[in-house]
Amino acid sequence: MVKSDNVSFEEIAVHTGHRARAGVLNLHRHPVRTPVFMPVGTQGTIKGLTSEQLEGLDLDIILANTYHLGLRPGEDVLTAMGGLHS
């Protein structure tokens, strides 16, 4: 297991003939199973997938660009909606 103050990684399975592995990346808020499909939400939207499709994917994580979200819609709007993690 690899560990730091806020993050740890635990190997669940390792391929004997290659360097491939599966594991769990334990982040501050939520564990993330690896390998991982991580959609990127640029300016608050994920292009190419509907909300229904996203819900059906059983995602552990979505990457949001906080720089763009800070510009538009802005911190006030994000706070009024409950924050980025809600």
Low-confidence stretches: none
- Secondary structural class: alpha+beta
- Using the alpha-carbon principal axes, give the shape: globular
Total DSSP E strands:
6
Main β-sheet description: 4 strands, antiparallel
The helix content is 10-25%
Tell me the Rg in angstroms.
16 Å
The ordered H/E elements are EEEEEHEH
Distance between the termini: 29 Å
Q: Quick check: average pLDDT?
A: 89
Counted by DSSP, the helix tally is 2
Task: Please describe what this structure looks like.
- It is a single chain.
- The radius of gyration is 16 Å and the shape is globular.
- It contains 2 helices and 6 strands; from the N terminus they run E-E-E-E-E-H-E-H.
- It has a 4-stranded antiparallel beta sheet, with no helix packed on it. Strands 5-6 form a two-stranded parallel sheet.
- The longest helix is centred in the last third of the chain and has 15 residues, at 66-80.
- Helix content is 24%, strand content 27%.
- It is an alpha+beta fold and 86 residues long.
